[in-house]
Amino acid sequence: MARGKKQNPFAARKRQKRENGPQRPDRRSEPYEETKRDNVSFIKYYHLQKICPTEEEWTQFLESIRDNLPTTFRVTGFKGEAKALLNIIETQLFTEYVRAVAELHQKQPEQVERPLCLPWYPDGLAYQLQLTRKDIRRSEPLCRLHNFLIVETTAGSISRQEAVSMIPPIVLDVKPTDKVLDMCAAPGSKTAQLIEALHAAPEQHKIPPGFVLANDVDNNRCYMLVHQAKRLNSPCLLVTNHDSSVFPNLLQSNEEGSKSVLKFDKILCDVPCSGDGTLRKNPDIWTKWNLAQAYNLHGIQYRIVRRGAEMLEVGGRLVYSTCSLNPIENEAVLQRILKDADGALELVDAGHLVPGLKYNPGMTDWKLATKEVDTVYTSFDEVPESMRTIIRPAMFPLPAEDMAKINLNKCMRILPHLQDTGGFFVAVIVKRRQLSFEKNDVKDLLEKPAEAAVEEPQLDESGKPIEAKNVPWGPQRKRKRLHGYKEDPYVFFGEEDADYNAIKEFYQLDESLSKRCLLTRCVTEKKKNIYFCSEPIRNLVVNNEHNIKIINTGVKTFVRCENRHTVHPFRLAQEGLQTSNAFMGSSRRIEVHRDDLVLLLNCTDPTKPPSTHELKQATQDRCSELGVGSCILKYMDEQFTLFVVGWRGTSSLRAYVDRDETIHILRLLGADLSKFEVNKYDEAKKAAAAAEAAAAAEAPGGPSLPQEETATES
Predict the structure, then answer these.
(1) Which residues does the UniProt record annotate as the domain SAM-dependent MTase RsmB/NOP-type (predicted)?
(2) 52 annotated ligand-binding residue
(3) Residues 630 and 588: beta-carbon distance below 8 Å
């Protein structure tokens, strides 16, 4: 080795392994070993708890929970084109589904079971397919179905979600006027349902008066949540990053100018759990399951639901749910909070909101056991001293007379064998009066921002302040790892904003659109993206941005787009059109024919937009009246009305939508989608053939040349 040259430790380790003996076999080429769907402790524990009333039903339960989970999806109900998409799904998609499944399983089409419309989901908007996620992803005959699910999910028209996971938002019974808190929101499928419920009456509210505050303790999962919820483009969503068990009281400004502690009308506590209800979807839990998980989680589950109950408005509704079957995580948590509430909280029946759903009532008696379920305890007195820090008195069922008062039988236990689903637990609580341990002191909240603004300087050994720029190591990095990145500021428009005045004049904005609710994410004179949020969300951000970490809010509405021909520097954003359209005047609108819209959407090269001369005469005439800049393309059908952001060029017109939204709209219009269809299996075959041809060309001697070429060369 050359003098002064450092040895590569990784290379040295590899050399050492090579010298020490034979390498381990490469297992990547071996077939994937299926997880053994069995766990002695799991079966012993739940048989002991008698979660099924009869032995026959217990056998059905075991058989079902060892089987794969069917795929389910639901259609986004608040969008105007939902009925048209539903019609396409029930005719074209399901016809293709039957053909593909018949080919996959080598059956006759009439032998294939059609997708099931979930009987308990409102308006028949949810379906269950007798296929697993693996079937859909890895089967060539199902390629078109897979493409449909991906595109429509990205476009926000459908959501792929486990069937039982759809139940908590339904029984929460959200109305457009409700202030809603989702305490443990990531990854966001339930949050999306809450947003849909908030927007369920567009004919009554241009913008819903209520809002959804979605929170999660995990910073990385917060961005998954944003990605999921942003598909719905709601201005009534605020995403925060905080520990739900110690979620701070939030301030709100009242109409008369005073401030008070915010209370929520509806709260969803879908708490972290052991997840054994998802064994059909996540079979690896079979190998990891043990009772210690439930014992460890009981405390945090209780603290989250207790904090939720404190923040709930009197008369408000709280849903507690888990994807666990364990009474320690379910009934034991509820009996504890109901006992502490001393009559202020009441369990209520919610079965009428999910007619057709089969479920068992909550349990009123259960037993605790050791991790291996070899010793069973029926009371805390039986628990040995060594286990009393793990198994706590509150985990045991209350005495019979106390149990009868809290009505745990009103809880809903959804078991896999009842309707071919996953396992789930749901309970609905109504708050009848204030809790004795509730804190509503607004003075503390008003003082906190001032305290937070004054940070004590860090001092070195000599007592001098340390400048932040001189210490790129230490606490700053640690804080970044623990709590994620520092978010950009939320800068709302002032009373006299030149950009707003120009936007208002160009698009003829309605006076009812509050400029106070427009914001940017950077402090600069030249705004790039302009977002819009509802008035209650603005109220929340302004009053609480020093009190809690805000991850995201607002929907992109205007984007800076300047070139030498434009009269106005901001174009409309398709994401925000769902909201902004109701406030736009008529000056930048073009009503288009179906053929025009299909032509515009089929143009995938932005450098070659269709000339206005290719459009219908009526569209040409309207285009001639408009100057260069952003516009709204309107298409009306018997079933639905579509609004699409367009761009009027000097002699052209184009649609300003992304690929997935383009395919979605073309599907609604009944247009040819072959241009956008991607068959990954065909692509893989072509790539393999090309690689084979390249390998053959590089081989000694190369491929044999045709006779004519050989003769020419000679």
Answers:
(1) 61-432
(2) no
(3) yes
